[in-house]
Amino acid sequence: MRISLKTTTIMFLAMACPFSALGNLSGSATLSINTALSLDTGTTSSSGGDVLWTTSMAPQGKATAVNFGGGGAAAFNILTQSILSIFPGYSATPISGSLMTVGDIFFVKTNGGNYAAVLVSIVSGATLTVSYTTFGVTVGPNVTGVLNNYSYTPAGFPNGGIAQGTLFIVTGTGLADPTKSAILQDSTMGLPSSLNGATVSVTSGGTTVTPVFYYAISTQLALVLPSNTPVGTAQLTVSYNNQTSAPFSFQVVTSAPGFATYYGSGSGLGAALNPTNFVPYSYANSIPPGSTVVLYGSGLGADAATDNKYVGAIFNINNLAHIYVGGVDAPIQYQGSFYYPGLNQINVTIPASAPTGCNVPLVGVTTAGLPTNFITVPIGTGPCSDAAFGITGNQLLTLSSQTNVKTGLVAVYHSTSPASSGSGTTVNDFALASFQSYTGTAYGTASGIVSVGGCIVNQALSASAATGKTTGLNAGSITVTSPMGMQSLLTAIPSVTGIYESQLISGFIPSTGGTFSFSGTQGSDVGSFSTTVSLSSPLLTWTNQGAAATVTRSSGLPVGWTGGASNTIVSISGSSIATSGLYGSFTCLVPTSAGSFTVPSYVLAALPAGTGSVTVSNQNNYTPFAAQGISLGFATGFVSYSANSTFN
Questions:
Q1: Is residue 589 a part of any domain in this protein?
Q2: Is the pTM of this model over 0.85?
Q3: Is residue 419 packed enough to be buried (19+ CB in 10 Å), middle (13-18) or exposed (0-12)?
Q4: Fewer CB within a 10 Å sphere, N or C end of the chain?
């Protein structure tokens, strides 16, 4: 389908504007437990760096540190390299976590021999947000990532390559003039090969090509990879200020599409447009089954005609073999270029048989069998609805516009998992509670959330990076009661607010299920509440657990079960960690009444080869409860089985 040019398409050229650096490296970072910070580059990781935040601030490698004390921003802003260099007491001894309070300042002599001042600006449970200045750093280009502009799939994943002709981004520090803002270049005049002092070179198969720029800021570049770039392992370098970065390796492929998302996150709510008025569908205005929608993205494949300049024509690039909506194969009406360099358009008809809900998964699969990023779309009539989770589209739209969304979840959990040592299994009964505050945007993005009837995948550079950032809420004292008596829930991690957990006594959750009552007293953030959870009889049993021991990703994973109430949900989830640290996970939700489900091969294809686990859970529909201080409260119950897995 050919459509006229609309300004709405331009919004999909997603941009980010983090800190800039010039002479001294200044910025901020959020450090959760076991996060390392390199003060020479401004990057965080799970290890290495100059300091590692655990329950103390521990220097790493050859770095040393000393605590300066309170003083806040006023003192921090007048510090100089001279002051830090003559300050006594630097050592490799960790700085006590009790000193890491808001306003505290500590100094670090980095592994690179530079001096850095660090200010603790926010403390949220065990998570610190710090501001830092590293003095005298020679800020050259440092590349940390090469990603599709829409999917953000990290390099190294099976679907993490960059296709010929793709609009892609380079992330890092010191990449371009830090005084310049992210202004889109006019592709009708042709995109430039150098911008804000930066140039990029890509070498693959012995051929070197020069990508062209949409924008360039110090921490991110947006470019189009020439369609004549040879397929294979490529090396990318960035040159700026008479310095060239170390090469960054990535794969050039024929096709690796990524779909645009509403919030520019690479996952969650997709940007699906009405082809008549080009207005994005939303939680309050879901897609009627049988309708055709317009998707935008990049990575379908080579299109030399639009490599560096806007053209008044479109071209088919038929490298998607399928688009699945809620697991149902959807007819593709058009796939190809869309006028602008690197920009693709895909028109797809939502099948009449697709499941409805607020977060129905949508994923494309290339002719080579590799998936796109997994996005979700609202399907239904008017506002969407997920009855199993007690949520409607109008609620989601309201919550996503709020600065913070405060939620509560309580649950009973019957778990059967592999024993920690030797053979056999361990059976445990738990009571859980989580009271958290999310940003409204993060809540509206719905990343990692899926409606019943489909599967979603999340990918990250490490398992710790896959964990979202939240702020815990104090809910006071919480108890759970069954016919066996009453037990109190304890703070799961003493230094972390908002997470409560207790192992229940044997028999607290009988094999016949039952009803369990939760009660909460007044906390400093959450008011008193009471609610109940019921588990049906008989409890669910995973009947082919052995099938998960070795998962052949290209073959799919069959799962069967008996028991569980017919009006409940079965959640099938799994994760795999590669030797490189790459982490991928999937979640599929299906009605318990189905009795079986096969996790599709295109879902498993997005996971790295490695070791991990598969979990099958029977989950009750969410029962809402109210408490002062939270927007939403839900109660549920789980019966869960886990197995160690190898993903081949």
A1: yes
A2: no
A3: exposed
A4: N
